[in-house]
Write a structure and sequence with these properties.
The protein has 1 helix and 4 strands. The protein is mainly beta. It has one domain. Strand 1 and strand 2 form a beta hairpin. The protein is globular and about 30 Å long. It starts with 18 loop residues before the first strand and ends with a strand.
Length: 66
């Protein structure tokens, strides 16, 4: 699920507009995209933040989703 209004913003590094949405985990700094299983994404996670990874340059951008 993409946060509204963010999917049409270009990547700040390369300008691409295709992304993989997911979460960046604070305990291991691993990116888990939305297609990862529920248990893999949500258990034993100390902190996670909403993120998108550019499909072209692999830049990861973080979003506060409060």
């Amino acid at each position: 699920m993409e946060p509204s209004g963010l999917s049409d913003k270009p990547c700040i590094i390369c300008g691409e507009q295709l992304y993989d949405w997911g979460y960046l985990r604070g305990d291991s700094l691993q990116f888990f995209d939305d297609s990862s299983g529920f248990f893999k994404r949500n258990f034993s996670i100390k902190y996670q933040v909403r993120a998108r990874r550019c499909r072209k340059c692999r830049n990861i951008q973080l979003f506060d989703m409060e």
